[in-house]
Design goal:
The protein is 39% helix and 14% strand. By secondary structure, the chain is of the alpha/beta class. The longest helix is centred in the first third of the chain and has 15 residues, at 51-65. Bound molecules: adenosine monophosphate (AMP).
Length: 423
């Protein structure tokens, strides 16, 4: 299959060509023709499969073919994403794929002032990319009107539900016309996702590119057993010895991300970190520095790293294993993208063996163990139990709250969420 035979307009094919894509990925080959027919889609696809182009390409085609009147604050397409980073990336993709079409796009997400977003919205918008919380704030303030939405996309639906956005999503959907095309993408299909899909989609076409909780075959996974206190030393050793130039490293906590990034920097490996305590601007800068090669290592927590799109990332290191096994799949999905080879290495200390078993059980594999001479495990580490899941009293489904005026302080909420879950 080639892009040329899918029925996309010349203007779009030109943009695709400029991106350097030669053939559609599996999700694109399946999704594009169905979406062009105007059908609803339920897509099982993780990031890294090319799913963004899979829905953005046909959407920009459809709305540029069917001319509609552009109105202030009233989009024809709404794309909902769980995080600001993902919203930003989808927004960039809309710009890239719709480069030769005269479409107006806007992005609204928390962490940046409402004012600039309102000014942009007033200039008219065809495609709106948004996180559910900030979108609802705009809807409540009447700076966004959803009554003209023709196409709705829920990207990473499982993540949005995990983050407790279900009420915000349902409220915003009430403001949209029932007569619309709806596309839902999710890496996993929990009961909650299926329930949401049942209420939103009409006779959807099912598309699945990778089985649930599986990892791309292009990713070579392994573990390295190591004493907890020697992890940083081992990581430095591996980066230097193998001359890794772009490594995404995951920690469980913001504190550890800061500490590790500083430690790497001090040992001569340029590193930066990205987590929920960083402002939107700082996160964007860190990501840009990593992408353009100014820093070799990006240390990230799970929430901050969701949906990060870094082309051709060759190495992901789990400095600490995630407490939620499915987060492992999301973490290492940053490498081995669009057919490229990638390597995922987990540094596992004694206390993490239970987490390791859970991940192996989920993926139905046993990871090969790599031994690095000089770093063999000496004695069982002192017990430092790993906290599993949120602290007592944490109610993810009540997140986020709003004040009396109905406005939310998203940053504070974000912090609370991370603090509880990834302490
Ligand atoms: P996504 O799953 O949408 O996050 O995309 C993952 C990566 O694959 C992005 O860096 C895209 O630029 C890239 N990509 C998307 N479609 C293709 C394609 N047809 N050929 C090569 N790379 C692609």
């Amino acid at each position: 299959m080639s892009f040329d035979t899918m029925g996309l307009s010349q203007a779009i094919l030109r943009a695709v060509q400029e991106k350097g894509y030669k053939t559609p990925t599996s999700i694109q080959a399946q999704a594009i023709p169905i979406i062009l027919q105007g059908k609803d889609v339920m897509g099982g696809a993780q990031t890294g499969t090319g799913k963004t182009a899979g829905f953005v390409l046909p959407i920009v085609h459809l709305i540029s073919e069917k001319k509609g009147k552009r109105k202030a604050g009233s989009p024809r397409v709404l794309i909902l994403t769980p995080t600001r980073e993902l919203a930003d990336q989808v927004y960039e993709s809309v710009g890239a794929y719709g480069k030769y079409l005269h479409l107006k796009r806007c992005a609204v997400f928390g962490g940046v002032p409402m004012r600039a977003q309102i000014t942009n919205l007033r200039k008219g918008v065809d495609i709106l990319v948004a996180t559910p919380g900030r979108l609802l704030d705009h809807v409540n303030r009447k700076t966004i009107d959803l009554s003209a939405v023709e196409i709705l996309v829920l990207d990473e639906a499982d993540r949005m539900l995990d983050m407790g956005f279900i009420h915000d999503i349902r409220k915003t959907i009430e403001c949209m016309p029932k007569e619309r095309q709806t596309l839902l993408f999710s890496a996993t299909f929990s009961k909650e996702v299926q329930k949401l899909a049942e209420t939103l989609l009409r006779n959807p076409e099912m598309i699945e590119v990778a089985q649930r909780n599986t990892v791309a075959e292009t990713i070579q996974q392994s573990i390295c057993l190591v004493d907890r206190k020697r992890k940083a030393e081992l990581l430095t050793h591996l980066i230097n010895k193998n001359n890794w130039n772009q490594v995404l490293v995951f920690t469980r906590t913001k504190h550890m991300a800061d500490q590790l990034s500083q430690l790497l920097d001090e040992s001569g490996i340029q590193a930066t970190e990205i987590h929920g305590d960083k402002t939107q601007g700082a996160r964007k800068r860190a990501l840009a520095q990593f992408k353009n090669g100014h820093v070799r290592v990006l240390v990230a927590t799970d929430v901050a790293a969701r949906g990060l799109d870094i082309e051709q990332l060759s190495h992901v290191v789990n400095f600490e294993l995630p407490t939620v096994a499915s987060d492992y799949v999301h973490r290492i999905g940053r490498t081995g993208r669009a057919g490229n080879q990638g390597e995922a290495l987990s540094l596992v200390c004694n206390d993490e063996r239970r987490l390791l078993r859970e991940i192996e059980r989920l993926l139905k594999i046993t990871f090969p163990t790599v031994t690095v001479p000089g770093f063999e495990v000496t004695a069982p580490a002192r017990k430092q139990p790993v906290r599993k899941g949120p602290k007592k009293g944490f109610r993810p489904h009540s997140y986020p709250k709003r004040d009396a005026s109905g406005t939310r302080k998203e940053r504070t909420q974000d912090k609370r969420y991370e603090k509880q879950r990834y302490r």
